[in-house]
User: Which sequence fits this backbone?
């Protein structure tokens, strides 16, 4: 049900990027001979391909009445990750590489890094078939190279011992921060995998990752057993902070390349910029002009706020969750202020990003080590209402038709959509925590907002969006105290 | 005696007119006096004021013809009235007071951190430098008092400060003075295609030395995007205050005099020459603006780059679409790396091609033609977003030098734009838009080529009617619901909301711009022009 609720176009664009693997540093294998672009994406162990998991008695039961034992079958038949490679053969992909003057997409390392199972020779396990590249994003890209656990992980002795499996190279996907990190390695990007503005301009969809929304779209081949009743709220919270960490880390990588004058450094990197600040049709007296440009100078390019909108909001409202004592929303603003320059000072950006990263790391650790984050529905409900109040702050003072200028925090579609996704996740969490859950059917107001945030037919940008209308709709949805 | 009455009437008309318009200034009241002797060239010319001009240029063609038939050979007599009533320049200052001006005041007061709460764009030199008359154009630091804000862009902004030539130029003998000598006392040679284009470009493209530059910040605050400049079309668009029958007088002169004194080649289209030279000057002004901005200290600093105003507006500013025409175009450029604003390049390329192939002129600089030099500049912006400033400077400077050479070549005393060549140039433009050679035209370049083609058609067909005009009108009516091709507006200038209305229309054209229907239309037009049966 929630998968349907969340089917925003932004989620659909995710279909095109599905290479996932931990970012762990290789330990057991030497770097020698491994193409530089591959080292960071390869797991700690050799890989053997999805076929090695696909025995009928193991994960390929082909019995869709149950999940257990049918993991491979679900992936192969329902999971878009299995289509990641096939995407490269589509006409759209051919157009893209043509435009970029690249090799065929299914031979191009830049594309295969996320879309294929492209393993350098000395990382290939003995069972790995040549044509495995066509698997797209398969088992081991999320779960880790199976060389050392493939033959033991199903034995009763070891399968329940997470630590032992981890030592053998299995990724701890039950650990939410690790899981989000695995997803983010493609869906946000990193050192050797990135969707930059060149690719986007050539036709690649913008990356727009929000963990709970993506999670709901997955045809799940697992259970979230043992993760606590506050799973939904926890997943949202950790998803937000872990995603922000990945995004700032990518910025740090890009800025460092520019600061050290790497040959292929692209700087300024427009993918770091808020897409729709520039990409909108021009009109006289637009809402952007009416809004007073959100504290920027007119005509400056704002830093993309998708990944920091919610962490900042959480700090603004002083949310009842563990967080570093010294953290201040100002660190995000400092970074944003540097990034809005036409050609940001790369060295200064590296420095500012490093500080933000340290804070986010600490925040994430604190969240991870707290067993129950948002344990009762009352707390979750209050958090939701405060997020709504924060997003719509100032709207109450606005005379009719002039809302945008009065909004204190709400800046753009990215912020609005993150707010929407947060509320959907938190509403779900609140319901989960109730002794007597109410109907999961989304209220009319929620549907209304979803439709409002959707892009028009044949459009890939929010042409009819205005912050004031969004805040009006959001206030209409604001739930009464229960 | 009768003559005196006529003259008195001629003086009386502008005085009445002057009372209406010039309530803030004193009207001189002196009828024009013939110059007694050679002009005194010592000292700087200063402002004579609109009131002086009105005395002769504020009546009507009939009255002037009645009173001073010889003067009517060159002027109409109602220039000031035309300007006052129908010329957009007259409204230049008023537009600062418009709703849009107020919006910009509100935004820029905050952006520029102005302490004075009563500050408005009308107080700002950066705005007044184009929207009013600059009384001290050669001085760098100016105050509000250095601008005459009463009449927007008035006579002497374009024609030069007239204190030293207002009286003598009413003498018939003035016609025999060379433009160079006239310039010594401050009269600018607006009949010279190069000089006119430079004067217009200063505001319509920008000129940093004169403090004229619409920055991206101003655009973001609401300044309408400067339309792609094409001097011949823009001259035509303004209700012209030139007496087009002056060519009859030029015809009486010797060939060399008519060229030397009035830049008129018998048998040539002045409009075509103006268009050609104007295209080169426009490009040169854009390049000069780029170079001048690079010279300003700030740009070299690590976190500074060129102002976004130099770049193609619509490369970024468009709603994103599936099946994007931009992606279909097989980027000549690197995708995602904005190119320099191209309004000017497309027309310049065609003019240069026509000059080389049809007029057999050598426009190459160090063996490189315009297309090669332009590609070198574009490559700089392909290699890195916004380009390495040093390389930009080098390549743009080369283009400035190329333009100097091209302007000299195109300013020769030689029959260049004969009726046949004018037609050829028009055909080249139509084919360029219609052909698949042009992989992509941004809305600005397309607009500029549409205007240029229309202006040349007007020249080729000698007015509003003709086979091409008819086909054009038919095609336009067909596409009335979604116009593919906005022509010059030339509409009701008394409309108070003209600017705002125009802006809405322009944005509509830009936002809905699609190349294919425009191509189809221009293919048909060029077929008609060539006398071929259209498909």
Assistant:
């Amino acid at each position: 049900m929630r998968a349907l609720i969340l089917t925003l176009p932004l989620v659909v664009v995710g279909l095109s990027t599905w290479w996932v693997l931990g970012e762990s540093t290789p330990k057991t294998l030497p770097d020698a001979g491994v193409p530089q672009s591959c080292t960071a994406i390869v797991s700690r162990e050799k890989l053997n391909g999805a076929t090695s998991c696909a025995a009928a008695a193991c994960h390929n039961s082909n019995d869709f009445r149950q999940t257990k034992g049918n993991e491979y079958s679900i992936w192969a038949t329902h999971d878009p990750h299995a289509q990641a490679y096939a995407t490269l053969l589509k006409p759209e992909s051919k157009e893209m590489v043509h435009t970029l003057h690249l090799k065929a997409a299914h031979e191009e390392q830049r594309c295969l890094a996320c879309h294929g199972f492209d393993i350098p020779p000395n990382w290939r396990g003995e069972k790995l078939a040549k044509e495995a590249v066509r698997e797209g994003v398969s088992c081991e890209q999320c779960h880790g190279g199976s060389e050392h656990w493939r033959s033991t992980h199903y034995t009763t002795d070891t399968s329940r011992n997470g630590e032992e499996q981890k030592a053998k190279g299995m990724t701890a996907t039950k650990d939410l921060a690790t899981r989000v990190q695995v997803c983010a390695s493609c869906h946000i990007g990193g050192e050797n995998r990135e969707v930059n503005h060149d690719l986007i301009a050539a036709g690649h969809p913008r990356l727009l990752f929000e963990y709970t929304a993506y999670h709901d779209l997955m045809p799940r081949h697992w259970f979230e057993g043992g993760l606590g009743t506050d799973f939904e709220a926890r997943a949202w919270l950790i998803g937000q902070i872990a995603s922000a960490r990945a995004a700032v880390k990518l910025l740090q990588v890009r800025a460092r390349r520019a600061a050290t004058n790497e040959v292929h450094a692209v700087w300024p990197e427009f993918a770091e910029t808020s897409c729709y600040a520039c990409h909108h049709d021009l009109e006289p007296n637009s809402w952007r002009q009416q809004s007073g440009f959100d504290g920027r100078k007119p005509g400056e390019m704002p830093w993309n706020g998708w990944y920091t909108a919610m962490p900042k909001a959480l700090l603004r409202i002083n949310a009842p969750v563990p967080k570093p004592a010294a953290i201040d929303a100002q660190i995000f603003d400092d970074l944003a202020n540097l990034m809005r320059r036409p050609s940001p000072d790369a060295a200064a950006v590296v420095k500012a990003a490093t500080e933000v990263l340290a804070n986010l790391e600490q925040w994430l650790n604190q969240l991870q080590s707290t067993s129950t984050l948002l344990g009762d529905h009352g707390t979750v409900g209050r958090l939701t209402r405060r997020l709504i109040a924060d997003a719509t702050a100032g709207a109450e003072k606005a005379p009719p038709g002039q809302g945008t200028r009065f909004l204190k925090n709400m800046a753009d579609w990215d912020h609005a959509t993150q707010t929407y996704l947060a509320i959907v996740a938190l509403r779900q969490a609140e319901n989960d925590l109730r002794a007597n859950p109410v109907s999961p059917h989304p209220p009319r107001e929620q549907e209304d907002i979803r439709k409002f945030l959707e892009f028009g037919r044949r459009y890939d940008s929010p042409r009819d969006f205005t912050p004031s209308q969004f805040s009006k709709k959001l206030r209409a949805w604001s739930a009464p105290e229960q | 005696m009768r003559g005196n009455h006529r003259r008195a009437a001629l003086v009386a008309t502008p005085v009445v007119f002057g009372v209406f318009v010039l309530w803030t200034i004193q009207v001189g009241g002196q009828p024009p006096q013939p110059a007694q002797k050679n002009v005194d060239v010592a000292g700087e010319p200063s402002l004579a004021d609109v009131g002086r001009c009105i005395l002769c240029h504020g009546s009507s063609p009939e009255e002037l013809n009645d009173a001073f038939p010889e003067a009517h050979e060159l002027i109409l007599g109602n220039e000031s009235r035309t300007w006052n009533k129908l010329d957009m320049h007259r409204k230049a200052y008023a537009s600062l007071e418009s709703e849009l001006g107020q919006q910009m005041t509100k935004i820029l007061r905050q952006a520029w951190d102005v302490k004075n709460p009563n500050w408005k764009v009308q107080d700002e030199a950066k705005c007044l430098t184009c929207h009013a008359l600059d009384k001290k154009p050669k001085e760098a630091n100016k105050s509000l008092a250095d601008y005459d804000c009463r009449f927007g862009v008035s006579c002497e902004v374009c024609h030069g400060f007239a204190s030293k030539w207002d009286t003598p130029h009413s003498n018939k003998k003035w016609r025999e003075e060379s433009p160079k000598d006239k310039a010594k006392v401050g009269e600018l040679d607006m009949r010279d295609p190069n000089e006119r284009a430079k004067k217009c470009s200063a505001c319509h493209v920008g000129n940093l030395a004169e403090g004229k530059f619409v920055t991206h910040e101003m655009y973001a605050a609401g300044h309408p995007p400067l339309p792609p400049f094409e001097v011949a079309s823009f001259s035509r668009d303004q209700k012209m205050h030139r007496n087009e029958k002056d060519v009859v007088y030029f015809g009486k002169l010797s060939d060399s005099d008519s060229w030397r004194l009035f830049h008129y080649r018998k048998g040539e289209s002045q409009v075509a020459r103006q268009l050609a030279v104007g295209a080169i000057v426009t490009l040169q002004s854009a390049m000069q603006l780029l170079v001048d901005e690079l010279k300003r200290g700030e740009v070299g600093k690590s976190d500074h780059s060129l102002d976004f105003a130099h770049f193609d507006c619509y490369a970024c500013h468009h709603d994103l679409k599936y099946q994007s025409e931009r992606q279909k175009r097989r980027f000549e450029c690197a995708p995602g790396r904005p190119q320099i604003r191209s309004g000017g390049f497309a027309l310049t390329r065609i003019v240069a091609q026509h000059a080389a192939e049809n007029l057999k002129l050598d426009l190459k600089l160090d063996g490189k033609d315009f297309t090669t030099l332009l590609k070198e500049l574009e490559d700089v912006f392909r290699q890195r977003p916004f380009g390495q400033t040093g390389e930009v400077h080098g390549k743009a400077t080369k283009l400035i030098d190329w333009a100097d050479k091209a302007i000299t070549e195109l300013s020769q005393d030689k029959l260049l734009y004969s009726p046949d060549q004018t037609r050829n140039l028009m055909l080249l433009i139509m084919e360029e838009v219609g052909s698949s050679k042009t992989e992509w035209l941004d809305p600005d370049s397309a607009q500029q080529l549409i205007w240029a083609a229309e202006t040349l058609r007007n020249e080729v067909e000698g007015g509003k009617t003709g086979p091409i005009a008819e086909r054009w009108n038919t095609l336009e009516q067909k596409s009335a619901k979604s116009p593919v091709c906005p022509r010059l507006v030339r509409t009701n200038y008394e409309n108070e909301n003209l600017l705002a209305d125009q802006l809405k229309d322009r944005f509509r054209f830009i936002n809905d711009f699609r190349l294919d229907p425009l191509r189809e239309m221009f293919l048909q037009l060029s077929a008609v022009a060539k006398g071929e049966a259209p498909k």
Observations:
- Chain B is about 50% helix and 0% strand.
- The two ends of chain B are 68 Å apart (CA to CA).
- Confidence is low (pLDDT under 50) at residues 19-38 of chain B.
- The longest strand of chain B covers residues 133-134.
